[in-house]
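Collaborator request, handled under Task 6.
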Amino acid sequence: MINEHLPALQVVVPLLAAPVCFLILNNRLSWLFATLISWLCFAMAILLVIEVKDGTVLHYEFGGWAPPWGIEYSVDILNAYVLLIVSAIAAVVFPYSWKSIQKEIPESHHRIYFTAMMLCLAGLLGMTITGDAFNLFVLLEISSLSSYTLISLGSDRRALTASFQYLIMGTIGATFILIGVGLLYALTGTLNMADLATRIPELEGSRTLEAAFAFLIVGFGLKLAMFPLHLWLPNAYAFAPSAVSAFIGSTATKVAIYALLRFLYTVFGADFSFNYMQVHWLLMPLAIASFMFASLVAIFQDGIKRLLAYSSVAQIGYMLLGISLVNVTGLTGTLLHLFNHALMKGGLFLVLGAIAYRIGETRIKSVAGLGQAMPFTMGAFVVGALSLIGVPLTVGFISKWYLILATLEKGYWPVTVLIIISSLMAVVYTWRIIETAYFQQRPANAPTVKEAPLSLLIPAWTLIGANLYFGINSNLSTDLASSAAKMLMGFEL
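Structure tokens returned to the collaborator:
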């Protein structure tokens, strides 16, 4: 039965497809092949969610070697949910890519783009599904190295600087993660996450264990752009090609947050992480600083991609806040926001790609009059912006509602007020763009602008439409997020 091999195929298929993309000399065929593989990954992720949604856990042993000796892939409701997010975004971004990269990446680099995107997808899916701590590090490096390549393909010369800055910061983060995993191995003699989880409770009080925990928190903090370790993110998103910004902005930081959750709850255990190490008292102030500071900085940006990058730092703050509240409602809010932020930010970056395709830039002043010239494109932007703010009937409202409920459950009403204030800041920075597009005229000497082609509009509206659909009918996303949160907190499903 092929179903038995789905966990392995989810990673092996895109990993083997990457060199094939490079070997196909025709760029269009390379794109079609990559798109087909992305859809196949999405289909496999859906099948895995169906398999585990009742609480089942799938185990796949590579080479027939039983864990902890061999590498094991383990699929439960949490990582099936994250697999679904990553593969769904890939299934939308790959079809969009062909038209978008024509204007943003030289033709000679198109095959490199598809190869690196496929490697990035394989790395992110692998990080999500693996049950081995060192294997997670290896797959993290695969996704990171391909991300550096993808960012450097941007047409602006500053893309190289952004890629190099991300390389330096990412390497420091990966080194911290490797040291943390190495210390755990030295202490326990195992790399299997389930095996680590059974051995760590006996070691409470060990300085080595505390050091491993600290290294892993900082390492994943860098990878997920936790304030103040976020400095690589604004330039990386701003100068990367639009399709790359959409893909990485919707998936990479989400998978890093998943990895952080996996170590906090599954490997170290909630009791060690939150009662002994008291990590929530570190995460909460950093989360609040993140969504307050980043929202404020976003208001003063001239470039829309950079504005959305700072907005992403703020959204990551919301996710960390949910983790720091240490209750089921907060954790459900975090996991919901993984899904919802992928939809809203992915859609907004795809809209910016459509604008860049027509006018060649995405500064705020350059979108003057586009409300009339590109009504469908700017309409998509408005809906995405409303979701970012958290207006009812959009996905942004659902996750913020859960976070507000979670803060009130804990009695942290001042934090509730700060969430509302940061949402009002989002009104300010998104309104600047909407006002320019709808209430200012195109310059008299500006060339005529046409609506974006359907090959860009359809993928963008797919994600933007999902913002409305899952905002109105949120049963699927809330059920999966709630089940995953309860599983992490140790409740029966």
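The cover message to the collaborator said: "The radius of gyration is 21 Å. The first strand starts at residue 58 and ends at 61. Please let us know whether this matches your experimental observations."
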